[in-house]
Amino acid sequence: MKPCPANAGPSGAGEVQPRARDERKASEGRAAPTVVKPCPANAGPSGAVKYSFPMPHEVQGVVARAQGEPVTLETIIVPDPGPGEALVKVQACGVCHTDLHYREGGINDEFPFLLGHEAAGVVEAVGDDVTDVAPGDYVILNWRAVCGDCRSCNRGEPQYCFNTHNATQKMTLADGTELSPALGIGAFAEKTLVAAGQCTKVDPAASPAAAGLLGCGVMAGIGAAINTGEVGRGDSVAVIGCGGVGNAAVCGSELAGASKIIAVDIDDTKLGWAKDFGATHTINAAKEDVVERIRELTDGNGADVVIEAVGLPKTYEQAFYARDLAGTVVLVGVPTPDMKIELPLIDVFGRGGSLKSSWYGDCLPSRDFPMLIDLYLQGRLNLDGFVSETIGLDGVEEAFHKMERGEVLRSVVEIP
Fold first, then answer.
1. Which residues pair with 415 in a beta bridge?
2. Rounded to whole angstroms, how far apart are CA atoms 280 and 262?
3. Which runs of E-coded beta strand occur in 32-97?
4. How far apart are the C-alpha atoms of 138 and 272, rounded to whole Å?
5. Nearest-CA neighbor of 266 among 313, 304, 315, 219?
6. What is the DSSP string of 1-22?
7. Which helix (H) or strand (E) element contains residue 397?
8. 145-182 residues labelled b (16+ CB within 10 A) or e (exposed)
9. pTM listed for this prediction
């Protein structure tokens, strides 16, 4: 890094200056963090500066400190990016059910968690050896930064990568406590540190509130239909569960050219949303026999593809019997570890077809995100329809309650 007058000491030599607010810590025997001031002499082609010394950033972020406790807004220390990492200024982040699972201890017990993962923003800085993104790039964050060298990647299926990358450095609370970022992202924060491969460049004309939703739930649903279920032109599709993921599966089925899209839920409001997203028929499972009704709507046969977006044994069994012979069942709803299902093995054999699970919509972010953003900008994919409300970082806890009550498809945190 070139010496710069902005960092010069009394001798005129380029020096690293301690943060003024940390001088007290140094006097108490604790090392003060160091900071290098930006200098045009160190700017790259874009004018952005790459730093060679740590420059921690103090930002506000939403933290789950303990299982089941309300989340809190806290000061977060975010390191400057190291090799292979990127610092992202978060512009918007959706409130996903996975974040609630983290708060409730349903993912693991590595508290405290920095929540948020369904996000879009702008790259602020990158570390060494980063070539795919640069400061100023508008990106959607993903949790499938493919390694390129695991057995799945080597057999040409990077969408199933078994060794995805996250940032190496840790974000912390102000007292130094290390945070576990949700899905390796932690985007309910003004800035976050991720592996550079977790940043997917897209057209900056797309609204951050809408674009960020592709980072998880909407991509999971669209991909369950298009990638996993391989819905084709003229197919009949049933989607069981019409929350964010299920309604995204409705969108995906329409994009793929399905001729009949049957939405199933116990909530008439959610069924109304499904109609808005392209469902041709709806079934209220609290009032009708789901399997029989789907068969009635498909000439007595069952649907070609049934997408289960709930994650319960009962709804999976409905999906199994509501498909046509040799049809496909896609499980994209996430069950809990204690759930079990029992099916007659002769029915598994006799009905044929495929029983599939969909991981993140079996997406490849570098392929799927830009394509879907293009469809959004062309008016062919209604991402804006998933945004029920926009909120601040201080509104996440209430957004969880609204989600539990079924009042929203997505609350989206917007960060100025």
1. none
2. 6
3. 34-35, 57-64, 72-78, 85-94
4. 33
5. 315
6. ----GGGB-TTSSB-PEEPGGG
7. helix 396-404
8. bbeeebebbeeeebbbbeebbbbebbbbbeeeeebbbb
9. 0.86
Match 């319960």 to its residue by tokens.
312
Per-residue pLDDT of the chain (416 residues), as tens digits, is 444 444 444 334 333 333 333 433 333 333 333 333 344 444 444 444 444 456 799 999 999 999 999 999 999 999 999 999 999 999 999 999 999 999 999 899 999 999 999 999 999 999 999 999 999 999 999 999 999 999 999 999 999 999 999 999 999 999 999 999 999 999 999 999 999 999 999 999 999 999 999 999 999 999 999 999 999 999 999 999 999 999 999 999 999 999 999 999 999 999 999 999 999 999 999 999 999 999 999 999 999 999 999 999 999 999 999 999 999 999 999 998 899 999 999 999 999 999 999 999 999 999 999 999 999 999 999 999 999 999 999 999 999 999 999 999 999 999 99
Q: Taking Cα atoms as reference points, which of 248, 242, 211, 249 lies closest to residue 93?
A: 211
Q: How far apart are CA 361 and CA 217, in angstroms?
A: 9
